[in-house]
Amino acid sequence: MVFSMQRVQPVRRALGAGLFLAAMGLAGLAQAQGTPIRILVGFPAGAGTDAIARTLGEKLKDVLGVPVVVENRAGAGGQIAAQALKAAPADGHTLFLSHDHSISILPQVVKNPGFNPATDFVPVAGFATFANVLAVSGGTPAKSIDEYVKWVRTQRGGKETIGIPAPASIPEFLVKMISEKYKIDVQPAPYRGSAPMTADMLGNQITAGIASVPDFIENHKAGKVRIVASIGAKRQAVLPNVPTFTELGFSNLEDLPYYGIFAPVGTPQPIIDKYGDALQKVLAMPDVKQKLTTMGLTVGYEPQGQFAGRVRSYTQTWERIIQSSGFKPL
């Protein structure tokens, strides 16, 4: 489940210089003919990840000079999109824009996910980190996690549900941590992505939810939901008044989730490098950085090797948390 750059080296060597040149020639021809590059996204249109993919895709189109199409393969917390990447030819025309869940978490909590990130995918580059946060809906008066807990105890008899974008995800483990720390009975309510969950929060169908900053930030700014806690070693720049879970007495929640781009294993290294370079150019554009920052991301380009190390470290951190929780793979 953990990425190792050493694992993909034999694949690269096996291709040989001739195959590299042939692959580059085919890719160049396809690009000249306008063959689009697909960016797979594992969540519905309108969700935070989809908005990020479309922001980057529009600029990558200009930098690469070829059409870039965002393709939503929603469902199962990104599992469907990940399986689609595995099935795609390693010709450089299919990429997967994903955050940590599909790569680092899902293979640990599902018995047969249908893919293995360590052997089926190769990281292209990372481009941002973010935080998962707890937000409460307008249907509660709570403006802090302590006020929310008090409200659950007094108005809900100590029992409540908290929405999560996918089952067996980091938000689900956070719900469990909240329940244990505050001695209340809160249970996760899984959704098919953050968009329908947020819609139910806006309609006061559920009183709280846990997702990423990009999923909540606009509604938080508009006062429609209130973010009351975030993971990470320090407060998020866009949420200076929101305490971290660490400040609130939780442990092991300092490592931040990541966003990055992945390709099918076997994709020729020159193509990987080309896309990495293009992504770096896009992230250097002031309007792109500003837009992603406004969404709640901490933007920072990470080349392939550095990004693979981040994925490896993050996966190991959550492997320990998941195992210590006693969670049994679904």
From TrEMBL:
<dbReference type="InterPro" id="IPR005064">
    <property type="entry name" value="BUG"/>
</dbReference>
<comment type="similarity">
    <text>Belongs to the UPF0065 (bug) family.</text>
</comment>
<keyword id="KW-0732">Signal</keyword>
<dbReference type="Pfam" id="PF03401">
    <property type="entry name" value="TctC"/>
</dbReference>
<feature type="signal peptide">
    <location>
        <begin position="1"/>
        <end position="32"/>
    </location>
</feature>
<protein>
    <recommendedName>
        <fullName>Twin-arginine translocation pathway signal</fullName>
    </recommendedName>
</protein>
<dbReference type="InterPro" id="IPR042100">
    <property type="entry name" value="Bug_dom1"/>
</dbReference>
